Amino acid sequence: MSIDNHAGSSSPPGAGRAGRPRDPAVQRQILEAAYEIVREGGYAALSMEGVAGRAGVSKQSVYRRWSSRGDLLVDLYMGTAEQQDAPPEGQTFKARFESYLQWSVHRLFDPSRANMLRALATEGQADPAVRQALLSRIVEPRLALGRDIILRGQQTGEVRADLDVDIALDFLFGSVWFSLLVTGRPLNEAWQERSLSAFFLLTT
């Protein structure tokens, strides 16, 4: 597993991040411990006390960085895989969008990471701070980039001029959430190929 040392360095969803500078080694240690707990027992097994015990740090060290287990899970999801800041550029709309979709969902090909995102969506229904973190750090950046790629395709004539861009993206990512939260169908390369084929029929 790869944990990004910068996970948790962006704007926090909770109030547990203020205070003295954080030791990156301790932060990584905590994230590694949290990942092992989630991998072994799922999100239900994750607790701040359990993470502190597994990491060999004080409970205060965990709460100093994350205000809740949902807050911690956002950083855990964002930091459990190496990821490019942006997808590779392509020469055509279809090539760009294929790279974009791969960049957006590749973590979910790993069932353990899919479970993390599923847990975040569930936790976000009860915790507004987790919901805001999910939207601002995971959902909205992907939608914004997808919107830019489609608008660029419209400008070059590769995408239908009358396409409702936001609805098209809702159709695509609605399939992701429906698979995660309702059917439980795996998200994998076969899903990606089918989704791209359907999306291109809609948009081009």
UniProtKB/TrEMBL annotation:
Signal peptide positions are none
* Ranges of residues in domain HTH tetR-type: 24-84
Q: Which residues bind DNA?
A: 47-66
Report a single Gene Ontology molecular function: transcription cis-regulatory region binding
* Cited SUPFAM superfamilies: Homeodomain-like, Tetracyclin repressor-like, C-terminal domain
Q: Where is this region: Disordered?
A: 1-23
InterPro entries, sorted: Homeodomain-like_sf, HTH-type_TetR-like_transc_reg, HTH_TetR, Tet_transcr_reg_TetR-rel_C_sf, TetR_C
Q: Which PROSITE patterns match?
A: HTH_TETR_2
Keyword Transcription (UniProt): yes
Mind listing the UniProt keywords for this protein, alphabetically?
A: DNA-binding, Transcription, Transcription regulation
Q: What is this protein called?
A: TetR family transcriptional regulator
Q: What is the species listed in this Swiss-Prot or TrEMBL entry?
A: Bosea psychrotolerans
